[in-house]
Write a structure and sequence with these properties.
It is built from 18 helices and twelve strands. Strand 10 and strand 11 form a beta hairpin. The chain is globular. By secondary structure, it is α+β, with helices and mostly antiparallel strands. The strands form four sheets. It has a five-stranded mixed β-sheet with strand order 1-2-8-5-3. It has a three-stranded antiparallel β-sheet with strand order 4-12-9. The longest helix is centred in the N-terminal third of the chain and has 39 residues. Helices cover 53% and strands 11% of the residues.
Length: 493
């Protein structure tokens, strides 16, 4: 017995000894990496405790810190979040090796979505590949054509609201209005849900806004990023109640839709929605997604398709309100498109004809839209003579890429839609404009988003001219939002 006890004791001690040695080696490697980054990679000088998180202008609206940083560091820079270095990549040559290859894994920042959704945008490896393969048919152009019908129905509601505002001469809260439109579109397209959120208060919209706000709060709060600290905070109860509500609603919808498919070979539906495509998806072995996976992907679809499109449409309207000549050109293009028609519904073949409208949209997105990507390097990354060591957190800083003077010139703050004329686009690096990321992990729903944005622009400028009543500055909250509500006046044409 004593012999067995001795053996077990030796094994236990050896195991813990191995873990201690492993920990010490990892600690030494991390310290060496931090010292290398401190000595060899460029960036603004950090505070010994806060890093650069309290640099003048960093947390202020307007992105002045971002503009000054990229004007000085035009390939990359190190931003210290406390004692944690994050290498910001801000040039096509810097981001291309990362986005076009598999040398980086998803960053730890995406953990903040875990309880709510573990959909395609947060997955890694073989699971991500399987989900990507199964979901890709959901964005086939034949499916997108059906989504466009639904978008037009939601846009009918928006146009009626804007007519009332124009009749009364009342300014419109632009971001709030565009956010309700995007929620309406995405809920209809996700699972054919008529929320009526553009006309009355919606519990679904309220809950999704709480969830996204808490995610933004956690992602850029060094303490709240850690789960055990967040669970002790006052926001955790609100977070748990919100995602539980969403899960319960979606579980009921999925269960009911499965029942329909089990009892009806061809359910009577006007169009297929995103949930239908997920339920029908099968891999090469004939296996589909689980209940949780379907719920996660629906949540990811809704999250990815609301704030991003609301932001892009808000900044387009804001920009064109300040540039009446460009607005008039958009209206001329839209008038030509709808000439001789009995109704203003946008058809799928119309979208490719909105050439100048699309140029204005892309330029406003370049100026304002910012949806960065976070990675952790699996391998070292060489950029313009610098080496970013393996294990380092990196950020594809879209805003800085889109305002890099080496790419866009010293007039990068000016609104110039001609930047996106075909000839000018062909001269630029494809990684110079990445509002939907790029490479294998680009946004699968980007065509869906562009269809919605172009359709909305066409419908709005067909009926209205837009002028600025009250402006705002951009601020980063996972996506770019105005720091105060933008007020625009919509006038009948």
């Amino acid at each position: 017995m004593s012999f067995i006890t001795t053996i077990l004791g030796t094994v236990v001690l050896s195991f813990f000894g191995f873990k201690i040695v492993q920990f010490l080696l990892s600690l030494v490697a991390n310290l060496r990496r931090l010292m290398y980054i401190t000595r060899h990679l460029p960036g603004p000088k950090p505070h010994w405790l806060y890093g650069n998180a309290r640099d003048p202008g960093f947390n202020e609206p307007g992105f002045k810190w971002e503009q000054e940083a990229v004007s000085k560091y035009r390939r990359l820079l190190v931003f210290w979040m406390g004692w944690k270095p994050v290498v910001m990549l801000n040039h096509p040559d810097s981001i291309k090796p990362l986005l076009a290859t598999n040398i980086g894994r998803k960053g730890d920042e995406y953990r903040v979505f875990k309880d709510w959704t573990e959909g395609l945008g947060t997955l890694e490896g073989a699971i991500w590949k399987r989900h990507r393969s199964l979901i890709t048919p959901s964005f086939h152009f034949q499916v997108l054509k059906q989504y466009l019908m639904v978008m037009n129905e939601a846009l009918d509601v928006l146009i009626d609201k804007l007519h009332v505002a124009a009749d009364q001469g009342e300014p419109v809260k632009t971001h709030e209005t565009m956010s309700l439109l995007s929620h309406d579109v995405i809920l209809r397209c996700a699972f054919s849900h008529q929320s009526n959120c553009q006309q009355k208060e919606s519990r679904e919209v309220e809950v999704f806004e709480k969830l996204t706000n808490i995610c933004a709060y956690r992602m850029f709060n060094p303490l709240m990023f850690y789960d055990f600290i967040f669970r002790l905070s006052s926001k955790y109860r609100e977070w748990k109640e919100s995602y539980s509500y969403v899960h319960n609603v979606h579980d009921r919808i999925v269960a009911e839709r499965r029942r329909v498919y089990a009892t009806e070979k061809e359910p009577e539906k006007k169009t297929m929605d995103f949930l239908d495509t997920l339920l029908l998806a099968r891999d090469s072995n004939g296996n589909g997604l689980s209940e949780k996976e379907i719920r996660d992907e629906v949540n990811m679809f809704i999250f990815a398709g609301t704030d991003t499109t609301a932001s892009a449409l808000t900044w387009l309207l804001y920009t064109l309100a300040q540039h009446p000549e460009e607005q008039a050109r958009v209206q001329e293009e839209v008038d030509t498109l709808f000439a001789g028609r009995d109704d203003d519904s946008v058809r799928y073949e119309d979208l490719k004809k909105l050439t100048y409208t699309t140029q204005c949209l892309r330029e406003s997105m370049r100026l304002y839209v910012n949806v960065p990507s976070f990675r952790v390097m699996r391998e070292s990354l060489k950029v313009n003579g610098f080496t970013v060591p393996a294990g380092t957190n990196v950020m594809v800083n879209n805003y800085q890429v889109h305002h890099n003077p080496d790419v866009w010139g010293d007039d990068h703050m000016d609104f110039k839609p001609e930047r996106f004329e075909r000839a000018n686009v062909e001269k630029r690096d494809p990684f110079a404009f990445v509002p939907f990321s790029a490479g294998a992990r680009n946004c699968l729903g980007q065509q869906f988003a562009m269809d919605e944005l172009r359709s909305a622009a066409a419908r709005i400028f067909r009926k209205f001219s837009v002028s600025l009543v009250k402006g705002a500055r951009p601020v980063f909250q996972i996506v770019t939002k105005p720091d105060n509500e933008i007020l625009l006046k919509f006038s009948h044409r």
